[in-house]
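chain below, 73 aa
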Amino acid sequence: MNIQTTKIELVKMILDIENYEFIQKVTDFIKKNEKADFWNDLSLTEQKEIKRGIEELDNGERIAYKDLLEKIS
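prediction:
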């Protein structure tokens, strides 16, 4: 099933629901997730680590994937 078909099926199911509270919860869920930015859910420590990793990559500081696997194994 492709995404367009899935969306249509979802809309059909929603149209059959008569429970206002449930519809409101679905609406709130969609609005929250369409605007959600995972970055805001990260701790400051996690954000700093990601920024540091990006800086390291920008400076050419990287290791091969197989070397990483050996290091953590």
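Residues 20-35 form the longest helix (16 residues). The radius of gyration is 21 Å.
thats it, cya
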